[in-house]
Amino acid sequence: MDSTFPAHGKRAISLAVLVAALGYFVDIYDLLLFSIVRISSLKSIGVPESELLNTGSMLLSMQMGGMLVGGILWGILGDKKGRLSVLFGSIILYSIANIANGFVQSVEMYSALRVLAGIGLAGELGAGVTLVSEVMSKESRGWGSTIIAGIGVLGAVLAAIIGDLYTWRTCFFIGGGMGFALLALRIGVYESGMFEHVKKQNVVRGNFFKIFSTRKNTWKYLRVIGIGMPTWFVVGILITFSPEFGKVFGMTQIPVAGKAVMFSYIGLSLGDILSGITTYSLRSRKKAMLIFLTMTALFIVSYFYFSPVSIEMFYFICALLGFGTGYWAMFVTIASEQFGTNIRATVTTTAPNFVRGAVVPITALFNALRTPFGISGSALTVGGITLAIGFLALWKMEETYGKDLHYVEELQ
Predict the structure, then answer these.
(1) Domain tally, the chain
(2) What is the CB neighbour count within 10 angstroms for residue 99?
(3) Which residues contact 371 (CB under 8 A, 6 or more apart)?
């Protein structure tokens, strides 16, 4: 930790990492829970079999749309009021939305609550990574993000297990309960010293639109979003709609979405850990990112050519897809390192939510191309586009490994 700021000690830093990791754990539980209970919940409220895919796509888009709005709101709040305000406020909102979601009786109510939950979910990861990045040393902050993501993504595994054991309504109640239980742990967390220091200065803080005040900053921000897009193509299309792909592949045993999510996120957790090790070994985030983007491309192709062999192979490929996209922690860390302290929370919170929100146009394009290309052809085309964007964004990106974060961004 920088000696310029109050030294809260290793215990305080450890608590900050733990709280951020558990917050992301609950965040991921709820974020992926809809993918797991999509079919059972929609059938329960009267959606016909023929409309499950279209209605599911719409609800997923509503949730991700909420995350786009929430990402901007929480990001601005994080830079104006502090990182802790977001950690508290976001979990309260999505916990309430989760519990209310357990009572839905119509698609309209389901849709409204997915928007509300999306807004709440948008704040957790960005605020947590921003806080941890600012209280840890520049050499070790990557490990903090790795721990957050490595623990956090296991929330999807718990969601899959809970989804098998309980009804979909109970699953939502459990998610809300976990969120409220986490609030007590957050009381002992300290605010970022970097933020407190910048707060006393007469500088622009938390102005989202100022990110686009210069061409350099605009492209820097868009590159951050671009490298993350392949992750949510994998989750939002290949994993979420795995039952539909199984049918198209002609598999005798149709994949269960909950299990596909579970195996992919087990792989994602392992990938996040290895991406942290790779980054540290190479002393480069760009080189490590290139390795994982390349693996993602190979595993996407494998999904279509090898997963139909058997249900076991299908789930194994899902795990490999998760492993390949296991650069999520590295991606969010890169976002936090690209901009100064006065705009850092805004960037770190909005960037992952714009990536998640990219599921909306990705899903729309996927659905539009299904008629001329079929489900497989459409998915391969959309996947190819997101990967091309990812590689191009990485090509021109600044290397930020070991970068000193104690500076203010000049916003025109």
Answers:
(1) 1
(2) 18
(3) none
